[in-house]
Sequence to fold (621 residues):
Amino acid sequence: KSTKVEPIRRASTAAEEDLSKPSVRILYGTQTGTAERFSKQLGNELRRKYGDGTLVEVVDIENYKAERRLPKERLVLFLMATYGDGEPTDNAADFYSWICNEVEDVENGVKDRYLEGVHYGVFGLGNKQYEHFNAVGKRMQTSMEALGATPICRRGDGDDDDSIDDDFEKWCTDLFAALDAQPALLGAAAAEGTGSDTLAAYRVELLPAGSKAASPFPDGSGSSAHDPYWAVISEVQELHTAASDRSCVHVEIDISGKSQLKYETGDHVGMYARNSEQVVARMACLLGLPLETSFRLHAEGEGASGDLDAPFPGPIQLSTALAYFADVLSSPHKDALLALASCATDSKEAEQLRLLASAAGKAQYTDYIAKQHRSLMEVMEGFPSAKPSLGLFFGSIAPRLAPRYYSISSGAAKHPRSVHVTCAVVRDVMPTGRIHDGVASSHLQRCKPGDCIPVFIRRSTFKLPDDTHTPVIMIGPGTGLAPFRGFIQERQALIEDMAEVGPAVLFFGCRNRAHDYIYEAELDAAVESGALSQLHVAFSRAGPVKDYVQHHMESNGAAVWELLQQPGACVYVCGDAKNMAKDVHRALISVAASQGSMSSSQAEAWVKRLGDSGRYHKDVW
Ligand code: 2AM
Fold:
């Protein structure tokens, strides 16, 4: 079966389209790009299955004018990821709070159930290891139901810890069955089986060698992911000792060039990291083009207003485009394999790629790609006859590199013009023998003072209590220490200003005092100055048994409990969400049970109330 390559159309067609037209709208809330990828894949599948005439629009939920559009929809599909501690993704935050308010209005009788007649479907993306699995997907479903809309099929719950692609496929099967039963929902133009496989491709304009290139990111205000600021890195320091076989870097980013840009202690910094020069050179070779190739990508229908939908502003050099915009170290998805098949000149390679992308080739995909964590770059190395055009490569094959977020590890009062980051460097040996270096962490590790990086600040709710007397208990093993270093600096600044501060207890954990006890001298100084009233450190690999932060919380249960009896006292947890945060949660319940003489269900309810009253904060990943 042949695959049709379609030029990419401008996103603005969605906004300009006539509201009365029948359509399926796919809205995605994405943080790392999976929900976006699934949405595009679903859009393609709907067109393929029901005909190219099916009007499907895939829209970033951030750009969706819900108030005006939602009541007029025929069928709207939500692909919504849950992020961190049960929160919506950044791009879905506004929509999410809007719909929660609408539900409140309906429940209070201020509005009627005005979405009657609208059909909807929800696929949630999350990870079962997290406490609030798919909280956003679930809330979307109950909200749409509360507003009177009709579900088209069961909610899908994608579990990233297992096989989220399979979960999505199963949900799509249910969705298609429901659509087959109600074809009117797709509009008059839909016709069974008339579509073709479509792959998106930009139109490429090659420019004369040496053409002036635009910056990959215009220098913005630094206030959001859409408007990053090119900041100068002023310091990079290794925090582990020479004895450690891992690396963790302390990076200082100078934000003094943007005087309006402010951060608060506990906020996050987002950054656009770049692929290494080796990866960029290898990719250019695989594409068969010199690194200096100058080009521009155009979305079809582009007018004088510029490249609205292009992934980067043109003109650009291939080396820059590959460095900042192509995620080639993740495994390729199905559409990427189909796109590679469409351009493979060796028919055996094309056939093999198509098999890997098909339902029949699922076992091969699992063995060759998923289990091996084989990257897109490795797959392209394995199928050398597939040399995609730049338009196809950036349109359908390489996902855009997503920004990476770090908890800021400096205190704003102490360092108002400098953002500190504490970053564990990701380096794993993959089953194929490939050494996988994390894109952002290894980039930070390679950085030298004077290098520039596009950054932006993301606000968080992870904040010290307003009243400086309120006791705080902080739990943060590994790089979970980051925001607490900021909290400690904040308290240090208060002490220097002669303010009175309440007790602050830190539970920190690392493997071994001689290897990875990061910021040891600073923590000792904080105890000395009173910025920390108690410091408990768990060394997990110093003795024969694991010693973790939660063990110290339990052995200091009486003191923890006493602090928690004080008005407003807060607990903060930062770091690994999959295991640590859950174990700490259990430890907190066990402290409440033993110290407060409660049954386990009473203790659980007590900890829940702590959270509901805004006294239990998590910054977990
Ligand atoms: P480990 O690697 O020896 O198991 C920072 O990563 C520290 O957190 C390490 O000392 C690590 O120990 C520890 N850690 C790992 N799993 C944990 C868990 N479930 N709870 C608390 N700490 C954990």
Remarks:
- Residues 66 and 98 are 9 Å apart (CA to CA).
- The longest strand covers residues 229-238.
